[in-house]
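S1.2 Input.
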Amino acid sequence: MIITVIRSGGFAGISRQWSVRVDEQPDEEQWRELLDRLPWDRSNQAPDEPDRYVYRVRCAPHETVIPERRLDGPWRELVERVQQANAHDQDGSTSDNVGT
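S1.3 Output.
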């Protein structure tokens, strides 16, 4: 299972992407519990706000777009964990995370 987070928008309009393979994480069960807590069926849509980030979160078969100001609770926890997993990978971990 792969989780992908894409952050777009902001003043410069540059996109960043982070991904993590849940089944290769040492705390796989915690990742799965977090995914189960996410309200995939509730809309997080909000009117566009200039120069603000928007997060697209994918974990097949789910996908949602969350404006930065609504990125809270388990959504914020997930995004931060995916970003941290990528930072750890870039520091020399042996996991197979993908980040740019």
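S1.4 Remarks. The chain is about 30% helix and 30% strand.
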